[in-house]
Amino acid sequence: MVTRKNPIFDTATTLGKILGFLGVSAICGVLVAGLLVPAAAVSGSAASGSIEFFDTLPAELQVDPPSQSTKILAADGSLIANLYEENRTKVALDQISPFMKNAVIAVEDSRFMEHGGVDTTGILRALVSTARGNKQGASTITQQYVNNVLNSNLAAAGKDEDIKLNGVNKGVGDKLREMKLAIALEKEFSKDQILEGYLNIVFFNRDAYGIEAASKFFFSTTAKDLTLPQAALLAGLVNSPSAFDPINNPENAKQRRDLVLGLMLNQNKITQAEHDAAVATPVETKVTPSRQGCAYATTAPYFCDYVLHLLLNNPAYGADLEERTNAVFRGGLTITTTLDVNAQNVAQAESDAAAGANPDNWGAAIVSVQPNSGKILNMAQNTSFLPVEGKFNQTQNFNVDKLDKDGNDLNGLGGFQPGSTMKPFTFAQWLDEGKSMNTNINASVRRYPQNFPWKNTCQTPTVGWYDARVSGSFDLQNSDEGYYRNMTVLYGLMNSINTATFASAAQVDLCGIQKIVDAVGIHGGLPTAESPNPKVTMTTLANLIGSTQTAPLTMASAFATFANDGKYCEPIAITSVTDQTGAQLPAQSSTCRDAVKPEVARGVAYAMQEVLNGGSGSLIQPRLSTKTNFPVAAKTGTNDTNGSTWVVGYTTGVATAAWFGDPLGDQQRQGRNLTINGKFYKAIDGYMIAGPMFSKYMAQVAPAYGTTPFTAPPSNMLNGTPARTTPTTPSTPATAPATAPAAPAAEPTPEPSKPGNGNG
After folding, report:
1. Which of 545, 438, 452 is nearest to 502 (CA)?
2. Which domains can be identified in the chain, with CATH numbers?
3. What is the three-class DSSP state of 380?
4. Would you give the DSSP letter of residue 85?
5. Is the pLDDT confidence value at 41 over 60?
6. R_g over Cα of the chain
7. Which of 120-124, 153-157, 610-614, 619-623 ranks highest by mean pLDDT?
8. pTM of the model
9. 546 phi-psi bin (left φ>0, alpha ψ -120 to 50, beta other)
10. What crossing angle do the helices spanning 141-156 and 191-201 adopt, rounded to 10°?
11. pLDDT for the residue 190
């Protein structure tokens, strides 16, 4: 059944149009009466009531800066990534093309420079047009600005459902409020300020808010350099960004653009020649895709993601995650980081080269810090942050912890077993107790039974044993039989001999080793919310040779302590944060502390130079050329499955951790019988893949940060006769036993403990 229209109210009839016009005019009269008070005298109860209603509406508008893009910058000021909810970059009015200013006034509000916020002439014209059946808007640029500000404030507060849109959910009361706010705004701000605010807030495209973002998105230019036809097109786009989209609807866009050009001509904003030339110009876009987030970072996506998590975890940016997310993604922040772009590019190239042909998804990572400041210089790994077919796709960061010290997510993988890179800390305690590195020890001892008299002044009990006489355990192993003999402590560290590390540990206070490890910032990389910063407990014997997962950034920072004469500096990534007004917000600053005695740090540096000169790292000495070396101290490391291999080392100016191994699942794959980059490895060791990564990276990067010689240790540390022998080629670790040595937990019931290996 068809419902018939009442002919009296049918706007298609002449009578209906008249009645509709009169009805709308009555509403308009009420609005105008309110708008003109106190400029005009008004009488009558209806008018008086409307004025009272109008007077109750708020006249204050909180003009907060609109949502803007946040920029993450490298140390040299180059862009790493943009972060935003709305892609917007604020620009001053004098940085916007005059064509754009004139075009938007011509099409949106030709009397903008004349009215006081509400154009009554425009309202009446719109009413007549609407009564004739042709809907026409009457909002001035000021009113549109008010509406955009109100909606922007609602969006920032997470109240998207309250946003008001013309023709959708905006009523007469909303329109009245908008008008009053527009009048009040005109009293507070100049026309130029309002036009600038409008052009910076208005929506052009889902990837372009404000004129600067729109100029870049559609034409790959700036707002200042817009041509006349480009400006006219963008001005026409404001009315309906989808209908007049030049990418999807180029014909509609041209018609709308030419309409704007005609209006500009009629209003004497352009000449006839300019008009004709612009109309003859085809609609052509040069799109710069809007890409936001660390996944689209120009460099160092994992470092970028680490920085983002630091900000989102920082209560200085908001009471909860939602507030902090708003502050970061809407606040138009400029975040300057510690990233050295050159160091990052080298690290990325070396990590990619190390594990390029790698269908089994083995991982490679390099991270560096500056010893005297803790600044993170690079953070690279051989994976793709965005899914790419044929690539190792991974969003988790190989270089950092899973959680920060307060239990907040860092998106890190959580670390890997550091193996023999933990041995220098036992060596440091040996020196700290006043012993000489050239003291001979008995490295033939392989059995450390449950009742072995370890010295441990900590309250934490000593855990673990190596004793083949106990079921489920075995004697301590080296990877080569020839090292079960007497040797100096220095020689044992140089060649990464497990039994030498244990023979040293048996003569020092295990609690002292623990204090050094704690002081240089070493902690477990796989924390829980209840224990976000777990210790690597050195009174658990397996940790003497590296059984607890630790992140590469942690190891680089720990070794940097030895480069910095015993001062540990916490790693930092953010040097400056400013808001859109230029005000400084909380960032990070260098926090350093005395951790190791300077003479001990110098002794460790001396010994770890020998690791490269004639020990387990002799094949990986970084070289500036075939004839020139520079001083480098380093330690190799390999865990018992060969699934985690390392070189961690330093010059006086930069400390670096290079890692290669298994980043998947529970990290239990054995690094044996695998082919990487076309080369077969029976078993991988620290010097084989991580070593060249470290060497090539340091050769290219370290000179920029200083390669001065290390300060020599005091002579008493060198007393004795070094047991120097012909340098040996680093050998492959032996296959680890299937069963680890038993280690008692809090109760007598034993639990497994990792054995580790020598020459790692």
Report:
1. 545
2. 14-56 (no CATH), 85-279 (1.10.3810.10), 419-752 (3.40.710.10)
3. strand
4. S
5. no
6. 35
7. 610-614
8. 0.84
9. left
10. 50
11. 94
Q: Which three-class secondary structure string do you get for 536-571?
A: CCCCEHHHHHCCCCECHHHHHHHHHHHHCCCEEECC
| Residues in the chain, overall count | 760
Calpha distance 611→619 (Å, rounded)? 10
Scanning the structure block, which residue is given the tokens 């190792």? Answer: 392
DSSP for 650-662, please give it. Answer: E-SS-EEEEEEE-
pLDDT-derived band at 166 (thresholds 50, 70, 90) equals low
Treating both helix axes as pointing N-terminal to C-terminal, what angle do 14-36 and 172-188 enclose, rounded to 10 degrees? 40
126 pLDDT higher than 60: no
Residues forming beta bridges with residue 316, ordered by sequence position: none
Q: Which helix (H) or strand (E) holds 279?
A: helix 272-279
> What average pLDDT does the segment 334-344 reach?
98
Looking only at Cα atoms, what is the longest distance across the chain?
Answer: 117
Element (H, E) at 430: helix 423-432
Return the pLDDT at 361: 94
Q: How far apart are CA 491 and CA 177, in angstroms?
A: 83
Out of 11-25, 316-330, 688-702, 705-719, least confident range:
11-25
Half-sphere exposure of 636 (CA within 13 A, CB side): 40
Ramachandran sector of residue 415 (left: φ over 0; alpha: ψ -120 to 50; beta: rest): left
Q: What is the pLDDT of residue 119?
A: 86
Give the burial class of 748: count Cβ atoms within 10 A of its Cβ; 0-12 exposed, 13-18 middle, 19 or more buried: exposed
Cα–Cα–Cα angle for 534, 540, 543, rounded to 5 degrees? 75
CA distances (Å), origin 716, targets 48, 136, 432, 434, 508:
100, 93, 12, 8, 18
pLDDT tens, residue by residue, 423-461: 999 999 999 999 999 999 999 999 999 999 999 999 999
Identify whether the C-beta of residue 686 lies closer than 8 Å to the C-beta of residue 647.
yes
Quick one: pLDDT at residue 388? 85
The residues, ordered by sequence, that sit 6+ positions from 531 with a Cβ below 8 Å of its Cβ are none
The amino acid sitting at 122 is: G
Cα–Cα nearest to 655, from 736, 734, 601? 601
Q: Compute the average pLDDT of residues 141-147.
A: 92
Structure-block tokens of residue 12:
């298609």
Residue carrying the six token digits 């085809």: 282
Q: Which run of H or of E encompasses 644?
A: strand 644-650
Main-chain phi, psi angles of 3, to 5 degrees: -80, 125
* Bond before 38 cis per omega within 30 degrees: yes
Does 3 have pLDDT greater than 50? Answer: no
Q: How far is CA 281 from CA 103, 262, 624, in A?
A: 16, 14, 57
Q: For 627, how many CA atoms within 13 A lie in the half-sphere containing its CB?
A: 0
Contact present, 76 and 298 (Cβ < 8 Å):
no
Are 649 and 660 in contact by the 8 Å Cβ rule? The answer is no
* Residue 384, beta-bridge partner list: 393
Average pLDDT of span 648-653: 98
- End-to-end CA distance of the chain: give it in Å, rounded: 89
3 state SS of 364 = strand
| Tokens at 304, concatenated | 């970028």
pLDDT at 176: 84
Sign of CA dihedral 724, 730, 731, 734: positive
Calculate the alpha carbon distances from 42 to 22, 34, 75, 121 in Å.
Answer: 19, 9, 65, 19
